[in-house]
Design brief:
Two copies of one chain form a homodimer.
Chain A lengths: L1 E5 L3 H13 L3 E5 L2 H11 L3 E5 L7 H10 L6 E5 L5 H7 L5 E4 L4 H15 L8 E4 L2 E4 L5 E3 L2 E3 L3 H13 L6 H8 L10 H14 L9 E4 L3 E4 L5
Parallel strand pairs in A: 1-2, 1-3, 3-4, 4-5
Antiparallel strand pairs in A: 6-7, 7-8, 8-9, 10-11
Helix pairs in contact in A: 2-3, 6-8
Chain A binds a DNA duplex through α8.
DNA sequence: CGGAACCTGTCGGGAACCTGTCGGACAGCT
DNA sequence: AGCTGTCCGACAGGTTCCCGACAGGTTCCG
């Protein structure tokens, strides 16, 4: 999978590229619109992450020229919270998507995967995470424990997804914070504990089993493991 | 494996380099940002340990220039407990990682190995330590003796991991202290004996075999050896 | 037999963790 | 715009459990 990241802020571009490589993708970064267009021609990405605030040729211009040159590569836009959000909305047909800065990295990767899956064809299959009795459909956002459907808040959903993706590896609270919350969040508090606590209440009320689904590994962090392991 | 350590405090840099060499790696140290950049160019490290508090070009600057010059070498950051931790978090979502000073050397080495394993490719396999009947999965934190799973406290876990990793070499109490506890720990007491004692109780209750898993070499230290050797 | 090295029981301080509560922020609706 | 419900994170109180100081006992060796 080949990813082109376009952002004039090198740390952000690198951040995204690094995460993508960590997932096993090829990734290149561009800091200007011109560079982006050049790389698009040479690198032939399967998907593009495109910041709309660019010096010189801006994001819309880049998109325009990309499309004009006939490439239908899907694009996920990045935008600041204010302003252009409306105009972006108009662009997100055709399988594309957008994200507001600052974003959480897991969120971005999730959207990239969704967009890719959709653009692969009309007959894409659902991506469903499963760990033991738990299942999570990343398209419909349906989460069930056994037969029982659960309704989770956004934060709960993200934390649970992260733990399910990493299962059965133990994740520290710092790692969960870094991946699920927006970058730059100064969470000095016990947010993670709090969300885990709320999750447990929803998850474990369902089953009477003794061992909780999300286990605490004292001094290290949390894991989600299928029962008996 | 080639390691570049960047820290303006020579004792710290040397400490890390020494441990790495002891593990069979090539290691060089730099005490300033400029030196770090020069060495990165000459030495071509596979991984970098980078203190963020540097005189002159600071850690972020070094990282920036490294990335700008196209090198994707993974980095593990060192940082004081206060302040910059948030900014670091933003940088560590990829394969990279960070550690808060003061740290324990084994902790650092463990993270270096994890980062290297991850950046080697998406298809890395789990790292499981085995000595005889004992097995320890460093990702899931599962420790078992034969079939029986053990639950260890953080300190017990670290000491056992250290002994397993060094097995069948005898380690002195001083070495164990230096590697598992944070540097600067004033433990004049018999902490190591204490932890070993507690470990033995957990380990040996499992098997009725006569020889304890962790053996005392009187006058030298402790070893963990597979039975009968 | 005497001392050094080692083992282990106990216990208090404190770290790590859990959970209840509450107010601010935000979205949806009328 | 005003109202209402929901979500989220700050704060604080309570609980569990770790860990290292201390001390007394045991083993080993010269």
């Amino acid at each position: 999978m080949r990813l082109l990241v376009v952002d004039d802020d090198p740390p952000i571009a690198d951040l995204v590229a690094t995460v993508a490589r960590y997932e096993g993708w090829d990734a290149v970064t561009a800091n200007t619109g011109e560079e982006a267009l050049r790389l698009a021609g040479e690198f032939h990405p399967d998907i593009v992450v495109l910041d709309l605030m660019l010096p010189g040729v801006d994001g819309f211009g880049v998109l325009d020229r990309l499309r004009r040159s006939g490439t239908m590569v899907p694009v996920v836009f990045l935008t600041a919270r204010d302003g252009v959000a409306d105009r972006v909305a108009g662009l997100t047909r055709g399988g594309d998507d957008y994200l507001v800065k600052p974003f959480a990295v897991e969120e971005l990767m999730a959207r990239l995967r969704t967009v890719l899956r959709r653009s692969a064809g009309p007959d894409f299959q659902r991506s469903v995470l499963r760990v033991g009795e738990l299942s999570m459909d990343e398209d419909t956002h349906e989460v069930r424990h056994g037969e029982k459907p659960l309704t989770l808040t956004p934060t709960e959903y993200e934390v649970l997804r992260f733990l399910m993706r990493k299962s059965p590896t133990v994740m520290t609270k710092a790692q969960i914070l870094d991946h699920v919350w927006e970058y730059g969040f100064g969470g000095r508090s016990n947010v993670v504990e709090l969300v885990v606590s709320r999750l447990r209440r929803k998850l474990d009320d369902t089953s009477g089993s003794g061992t909780p689904l999300i286990q605490t590994v004292r001094g290290f962090g949390y894991v989600i493991r299928r029962a008996g392991e």
